[in-house]
Amino acid sequence: MTSALDDPPDDHASAGLPGCGRRRRIQHAPGFTLTELVIVIVLVGILAAVAGPRMFDRRAFDTRAFHDELLFAVRYAQRLATATQCVVQVDVNSGTANGYGLMFPDNPANCNGPGAIFTGVNPVASPDLSGAAFTATAPAGVGIAGTLLFTYDPIGRPSAGGAVNVVGTDTRTITVEPETGFVH
């Protein structure tokens, strides 16, 4: 006995055709609706318009890279002074326009003396073993605001403290503490 809730029989059931006998229900295929796809495309477009220009501006990367490079150079000067037991001069934006340089005293015999003279004839060699002087200038679009000109003595104390700003898309400060020589 059939109830009113059962599906009515298919007209082709008696013909012996495959899949016949009951009506098939329409099944929904898995996927996204057109509305969902349009919303996602609009959101991706807004994100590309806002974040895209920041992703392709090289100055932000150059500013951060030069800040980190200068920070390393000042810390390296302190370590080099303590390792060699010789004063090392740090010159940021003074004798090197928009850059930095590390120098040993002109006369190596006056390595520990307070009257050491620095004219740039005895630069510190780059730690990459190339033999080149440890100096660099800021990349295009990046500058240094302020100057630092001081020496680290053989125990790592700076002759003076101070701060400089690396300026590009943002401003990053490098500070040398006067007593300890801590660089941050």
Brief rundown of the structure:
The protein has 184 residues and is of the alpha+beta class. Helices cover 27% and strands 18% of the residues. The protein has a domain at 58-176: 3-Layer(bab) Sandwich (minor pseudopilin epsh fold).
Explain this structure to me?
With about 180 residues, the protein is an alpha+beta fold. The chain has a domain at about 60-175: 3-Layer(bab) Sandwich (minor pseudopilin epsh fold), CATH 3.55.40. About 25% of the residues lie in helices and about 20% in strands. The protein contains two helices and seven strands. It has helices at about 35-55, 60-85, and strands spanning about 90, 100-105, 135, 145, 150, 160-165, 170-175. It has a four-stranded antiparallel sheet, with helices on one face. β6 and β7 form a beta hairpin. The chain starts with about 35 loop residues before the first helix and ends in an 8-residue tail after the last strand. The relative contact order is 0.15. The mean pLDDT is about 80.
